[in-house]
C-alpha cells in the first residue's frame, strides 16, 4: 500500500518503524489555581487552554529520540498523544502515521511498548519470575515454552540483570530488593519481551543518580541501534547522557522548536546568538534558553520564535513542514464517544483467558505467601486472638447460668473473624489498582481474569484462617464436643468470612482509595453488627430499623451457629431462680426461642449468606470494570 504522503517513508530497519505525527493540536480545560477560581469556574464556562499547537515531527527507526523542554513545554502531552493514553479530558486533533499508514490507538499499542515514569511491580516476585509472568501473557501461545524461556534469558543479559535474576524485586520498607536502576532496567526488559518496533519511555532517568542514569540511557541506545524506534521524555540530562541521544526534540510553549540531530542543536542556537559556554552542559543550555521567564515573557517568547525560525530554514525544519501537510485523521478525544464503547471489543490479547487466569492466580498466590504482612502476620494474629479468647472462655460448662456466655462465645466467633480479616483486605485491592490499570491498559490481561484470579488466590487463606481460629476456640471453650457440629461451625465461619471479605472487595472497588474505603466501611458494618441478634433480639428492634436486621450478615451467621450448637443439646442442667423457662431455658430449642431464632433456620441462613457472597462479588467486579475502563 502506498504512503499517504511522500515524506512519510518506511523505517530504515526491518525491526523498526518510522513514527510521524502531523498537525497535532491539543486543548483542555484550564485548571483553577485557587478556590476562588474554582468557584468562579462553576458560574462561568471553563476556560480552554491550548497545550500543543499544530506540532509535527518524526521518530526514526534505529535511533533514540529525546523530547526535552522546561516544565509546561508540552513534552508529556506529546508523549501521551503518541502513545494514545490519558487523553479522556482533552480534545485532540491531528494525525499519527507509522511508516506512512494512519494508525489508531489499538494499532499503536500492538506494535509499541510504553515504560512509564514510575516503576510498578509485585515486589515479592524475583526478576526471573516477573519476566516469566510477563512472557506468558505478552508472548502468548504463539511461542513455545522453550522459546519464551530463551527470550527471557536473552532479555536478562541484554538489560544487565543476570546478577540479580533470582533476587526479589522488593517492597519499600518491607522487603529489600533491586536498586532503582535495576528496577528501571527490569521495566525495559518487561516491555521488550515481544520485540516491539517502537518503545516509549516517560522520564526513564527520574530519581536516578548520574551513574545509574547513564546505564539506563546506554541500554536504550543499544536497543535503538538494534533497530528499535525509541522515544523518551527527559528533564535536564547530564552531558554524558545527552551525548547518547541520536536526535532531540526541543519544545517550548506547546511548540516544537527544534527536531534533529542532538550534536547539531547547540550549533543552531549559536547561529541565533545563543552560544553554549565552554565546559557547560549543552542540555542545560538548550532548556534554559527555551524557558519562559515570568518577569521577562516578551523577550523569552521573542528568543524562542527566533530559534524556531532558524530551525525551519534547515533541511530538518523543511521536512517537519512537509510532515505537517500530511492528510489529517481525527484522534480519539473527549468528543469521540466510541472510545470507551469499543475498548472491550477492539482490545486484543496475546494470551487466552485461561492462560491469563493461571498466570495471575499464581502471581497473587506467591505474593500472599511471601508478603509478611499478608499471610504470616495474619496467622500469628489469628492464633494469638484464638488462644486469648479460648482462655477467657476456657471449658465453659453448659448450664442455665452460662447460656448467655455460650451465646457470647458464638457471637465472638463472628465479630473477631470479621474485624480481623475484613479491614486488612481493603488495601490489598486498592493498593494493587494502579498496577491493574497499567497492565490492563497495556493489553496484558483482562480485568475479569484479574478479578477472578484475585478471588481464587485469596480463597485458601480465607478458608484456612477461620478454620484455624475455630479449631482453637471451639475445643478450648467447651462447645458441643461433636465432630459434625465442629465441622459445621467451621463451615459457617468460613462462609461468614467470605461475606465479610466480599464487602471489603465491594467497598474497595467502589471507592478505589484506601483512606476513603476504610472511612466508609465502618459506617456500614458497625450498625449491621448491632442488629446481629446478640445485643438486641429481632422482636425488640423498632419497625423502622427491621430492614437493617435483614441486611445483617452477623445475624445470619449468629443464628446458624446458635442452631448448630443448641439443637445438639437436649438438656440444660441447673435451677431457675423464678421458675420460668423464658429466663431459664432447659433445652437448646428453648434457648433459640428466647433469642428469636428458629431451629430450622440454619440452612436458609447459609443460603442467604451464599447469595450475599455472589451478589457482593458481582457488584465489586462491575465497579472494578468501570474503574479500569475509565483509565483507558
Describe the structure.
- 55% of the residues lie in helices and 10% in strands.
- It contains 24 helices and ten strands.
- The chain has helices at 35-43, 75-83, 105-111, 127-138, 145-158, 180-191, 210-225, 239-242, 262-271, 282-290, 297-312, 315-324, 338-346, 353-370, 372-392, 403-430, 433-441, 447-477, 483-511, 514-530, 546-551, 553-566, 588-594, 602-630, and strands spanning 19-29, 48-59, 64-68, 90-98, 101-102, 112-115, 198-202, 229-233, 247-252, 255-261.
- The strands form two sheets. It has a six-stranded mixed β-sheet with strand order 6-7-8-3-9-10, with helices on both faces.
- α7 links the parallel β7 and β8 (229-233).
- It is elongated, with a radius of gyration of 32 Å.
- Belongs to the ABC transporter superfamily. ABCG family. Eye pigment precursor importer (TC 3.A.1.204) subfamily.
Number of helices: 24
Taking all Cα atoms into account, the compactness measure Rg is 32 Å
Q: Could you give the distance between the termini?
A: 30 Å
Biggest sheet descriptor:
6 strands, mixed
Question: What is the mean pLDDT?
Answer: 87
**Count of individual beta strands:** 10
Helix content: 40-55%
Spans with pLDDT under 50 lasting ≥5 residues?
329-345
Shape: elongated
InterPro entries: AAA+_ATPase, ABC2_TM, ABC_transporter-like_ATP-bd, ABCG_transporters, P-loop_NTPase
Domain ABC transporter: 35-278
Subcellular location: Membrane
Transmembrane segments: 373-395, 462-480, 486-508, 515-538, 606-626
Amino acid at each position: 500500500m502506498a504512503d499517504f504522503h511522500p515524506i512519510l517513508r518506511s523505517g530504515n530497519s526491518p525491526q523498526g518503524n518510522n513514527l510521524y505525527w502531523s498537525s497535532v493540536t491539543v486543548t483542555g480545560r484550564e485548571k483553577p489555581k485557587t478556590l476562588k477560581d474554582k468557584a468562579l469556574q462553576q458560574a462561568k464556562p471553563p476556560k480552554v487552554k491550548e497545550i500543543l499547537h499544530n506540532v509535527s515531527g518524526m521518530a526514526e527507526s534505529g535511533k533514540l529520540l529525546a523530547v526535552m523542554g522546561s516544565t509546561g513545554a508540552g513534552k508529556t502531552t506529546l508523549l501521551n498523544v503518541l502513545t494514545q493514553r490519558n487523553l479522556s479530558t482533552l480534545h485532540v486533533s491531528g494525525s499519527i502515521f507509522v511508516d506512512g499508514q494512519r494508525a489508531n490507538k489499538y494499532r499503536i499499542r500492538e506494535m509499541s511498548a510504553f515504560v512509564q515514569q514510575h516503576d510498578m511491580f509485585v515486589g515479592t516476585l524475583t526478576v526471573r519470575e516477573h519476566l516469566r509472568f510477563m512472557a506468558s501473557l505478552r508472548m502468548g501461545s504463539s511461542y513455545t515454552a522453550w522459546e519464551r524461556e530463551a527470550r527471557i534469558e536473552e532479555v536478562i543479559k541484554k538489560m544487565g540483570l543476570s546478577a540479580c535474576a533470582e533476587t526479589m524485586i522488593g517492597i519499600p520498607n518491607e522487603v529489600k530488593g533491586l536498586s532503582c536502576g535495576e528496577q528501571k532496567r527490569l521495566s525495559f526488559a518487561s516491555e521488550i519481551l515481544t520485540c516491539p518496533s517502537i518503545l516509549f519511555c516517560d522520564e526513564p532517568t527520574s530519581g536516578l543518580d548520574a551513574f545509574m542514569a547513564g546505564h539506563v540511557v546506554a541500554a536504550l541506545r543499544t536497543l535503538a541501534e538494534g533497530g528499535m524506534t525509541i522515544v523518551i521524555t527527559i528533564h535536564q540530562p547530564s552531558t554524558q547522557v545527552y551525548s547518547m541521544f541520536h536526535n532531540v526534540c526541543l519544545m517550548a510553549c506547546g511548540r516544537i522548536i527544534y527536531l534533529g540531530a542532538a550534536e547539531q542543536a547547540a550549533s543552531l542556537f549559536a547561529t541565533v546568538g545563543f552560544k553554549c559556554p565552554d565546559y557547560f552542559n549543552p542540555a542545560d543550555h538548550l532548556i534554559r534558553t527555551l524557558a519562559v521567564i515570568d518577569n521577562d515573557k516578551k523577550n523569552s517568547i521573542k528568543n524562542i520564535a527566533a530559534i524556531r525560525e532558524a530551525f525551519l530554514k534547515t533541511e530538518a525544519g523543511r521536512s517537519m513542514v512537509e510532515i505537517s501537510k500530511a492528510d489529517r485523521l481525527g484522534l480519539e478525544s473527549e468528543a469521540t464517544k466510541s472510545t470507551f464503547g469499543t475498548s472491550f471489543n477492539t482490545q486484543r490479547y496475546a494470551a487466552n483467558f485461561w492462560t491469563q487466569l493461571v498466570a495471575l492466580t499464581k502471581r497473587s498466590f506467591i505474593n500472599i505467601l511471601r508478603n509478611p504482612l499478608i499471610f504470616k502476620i495474619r496467622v500469628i494474629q489469628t492464633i494469638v486472638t484464638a488462644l486469648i479468647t479460648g482462655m477467657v472462655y476456657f471449658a465453659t460448662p453448659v448450664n442455665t447460668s452460662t447460656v448467655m456466655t455460650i451465646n457470647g462465645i458464638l457471637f465472638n466467633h463472628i465479630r473477631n473473624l470479621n474485624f480481623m480479616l475484613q479491614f486488612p483486605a481493603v488495601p490489598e485491592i486498592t493498593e494493587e489498582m494502579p498496577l491493574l490499570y497499567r497492565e490492563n491498559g497495556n493489553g496484558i490481561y483482562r480485568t475479569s481474569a484479574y478479578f477472578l484470579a484475585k478471588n481464587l488466590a485469596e480463597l485458601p487463606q480465607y478458608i484456612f484462617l477461620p478454620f484455624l481460629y475455630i479449631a482453637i476456640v471451639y475445643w478450648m471453650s467447651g462447645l458441643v464436643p461433636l465432630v459434625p457440629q465442629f465441622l459445621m461451625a467451621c463451615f459457617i465461619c468460613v462462609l461468614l468470612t467470605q461475606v465479610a471479605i466480599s464487602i471489603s472487595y465491594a467497598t474497595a472497588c467502589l471507592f478505589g482509595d484506601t483512606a476513603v474505603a476504610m472511612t466508609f466501611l465502618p459506617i456500614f458494618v458497625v450498625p449491621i453488627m448491632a442488629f446481629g441478634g446478640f445485643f438486641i433480639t429481632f422482636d425488640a428492634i423498632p419497625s423502622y430499623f427491621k430492614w437493617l436486621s435483614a441486611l445483617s450478615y452477623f445475624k445470619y451467621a449468629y443464628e446458624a451457629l446458635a442452631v448448630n450448637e443448641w439443637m445438639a443439646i437436649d438438656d440444660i442442667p441447673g435451677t431457675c431462680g423464678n421458675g420460668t423457662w423464658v429466663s431459664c431455658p432447659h433445652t437448646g430449642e428453648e434457648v433459640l426461642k428466647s433469642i428469636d431464632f428458629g431451629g430450622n433456620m440454619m440452612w436458609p441462613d447459609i443460603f442467604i449468606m451464599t447469595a450475599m457472597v455472589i451478589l457482593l462479588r458481582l457488584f465489586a467486579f462491575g465497579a472494578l470494570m468501570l474503574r479500569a475502563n475509565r483509565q483507558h
